[in-house]
Amino acid sequence: MVREGFGDHLRARGMEPSKIDDAMRFVTEMIEHLAKNDRSVEDCDQKLMDEYLAQLIEDDESSVGRLIAMARYLSFCKRSDCSSVSWSY
Fold first, then answer.
1. What is the predicted pLDDT for the residue at 86?
2. Which whole-number Å values give the CA distances from 37 to 19, 31, 32, 88, in the listed order?
């Protein structure tokens, strides 16, 4: 599964275990949100991701760490195009 590969990727980059745990939690929550909308990372679009980001902001859950984890995961999945939070790192 891509999620586990992402954890391995972060470990290979030397990320601290606690930060990996946080990143994996943030990514899992994003994937669950997509699934609730009958979508996945493979078929998400900009509109759905923008709505998710708006919800995170409204709920005061849009931390820098969360946004970076999401951007890294989308980049890892080669889906930088589906979110305005994605950038190269």
1. 45
2. 27, 10, 9, 27
